[in-house]
Each structure stands twice: as C-alpha cells, then as structure tokens.
Amino acid sequence: MGGASHPTVFLTQNMLTHHPKPVCLSFTALDLPLWSVLETSATLYQRENEQFHLLLTEPLVQERADTHPNEGSPEVITLTETQTPRLLWLEISPYRVIMTMQGNGQFSYRHFWEQGVYGTSRYWLQGDMSKNEQLRLRNFTRSLQLIGSELPHHLRVEYELWSDKVQFGRYVINVKIHH
C-alpha cells in the first residue's frame, strides 16, 4: 500500500497494533458460474481482543472499452486502467464481519454478516449527474468462521443473497492472511 492513497485516515487512534501481510481474498458463487481471486498486500489492525480491521487496496482494474469496427476492418478493443484504487475494509470478529468497498467513484458496497442473522448488503451506483443510486438487499449468513489464535489467518463467510422472497444465490468469501 504506499503512496498518497494510504488508507489509514479511516482508522481510529485506538488501533495501535498493525501488521502488513500478504492476503488472498476469493469470492465464489455456489450455484452460479462466478469466481474471483484477489492476491494483494494488506494491513491487519488489532483493535481489541478478537476484533480486527483488515485494509487492502485492490490493484488497478483494466476495463474493456469496445469500439465498433468499420465494414471489413477487425474489431478494436482497448483496455483502460481505473486510476483510483478501490479500498476493501473488513471489520472482523468471530461473531460478525462488515466488508466495505469504496473508491473509483462509480460503485461502492457494504455487507454486514452475522451467523444465523439476516444482514444487509448495500450497493451504491453513481450516475452521470452525481445521483447516488442505492440498491439494498438482504443476506442470510449460513456460516462465519474466523481461524487464528492471536492473529486471524483465515476467514470464511458463507451467505445467501435475497431480495424480498427471491434468492439471488449462495456465496462464499474466503480470506487467507499469510503470516
């Protein structure tokens, strides 16, 4: 993490202990063909006994910009890099997890998971006229596991995503913190 976008401005003064760590975060849908893995460095902050914040910066994302070809010429696809990094902030305890993604100015989200509880998943989309559009869904946390004696080294959250009475799938978030 480094540079001018160091995210410690979000942290409170009682977070005295921090540990830079390599992290692997994976997202898997159990009933849909979705899977994503992010390997990056993160900073683990110990707030209190069994309460941690894990802060990581997603590497720059290359977005696909299609151009329409003229007749007889091949299609040209350009990749552009999003200049603002996306920050993932996980508030972790053995009982609940809050994950917030912010950055890039177009899309943000916040998930609240607690085992056996319906939590909320909020997504914010920003339109062309600076209107913040919010999509709010419910999630049901089927299981939440935090493994690690002094410092966590593995977090697994399995949840269902719901809108009213319609289920949008089952998902698993795995976070491996390498020591």
Describe this structure in words.
- With 179 residues, the protein is an all-beta fold.
- It has a single domain, classed as Beta Barrel (Lipocalin), CATH 2.40.128.20.
- It is built from no helices and 12 strands.
- The N terminus is likely disordered.
Question: Main attributes?
Answer:
179 residues, Lipocalin, two-stranded antiparallel sheet, 12 strands, disordered N terminus
Report a brief summary of the structure.
Helices cover 0% and strands 64% of the residues.
Largest sheet: 10 strands, antiparallel, barrel
Number of strands: 12
In helices, the fraction of residues equals under 10%
Count of DSSP-assigned helices: 0
Question: What percentage of amino acids are in beta strands?
Answer: over 45%
- Parts with pLDDT < 50 across at least 5 consecutive residues: 1-15
* CATH C-level class: Mainly Beta
Secondary-structure element pattern, one letter each: EEEEEEEEEEEE
What is the general shape? globular
* Ends distance: 17 Å
The CATH topology name reads Lipocalin
CATH architecture: Beta Barrel
Structural category is mainly beta
**Quick one: CATH superfamily?**
Calycin beta-barrel core domain
Please describe the topology of this protein.
Blueprint lengths: L16 E13 L5 E14 L2 E8 L3 E5 L10 E5 L4 E7 L3 E8 L3 E8 L3 E9 L5 E16 L6 E10 L2 E12 L2
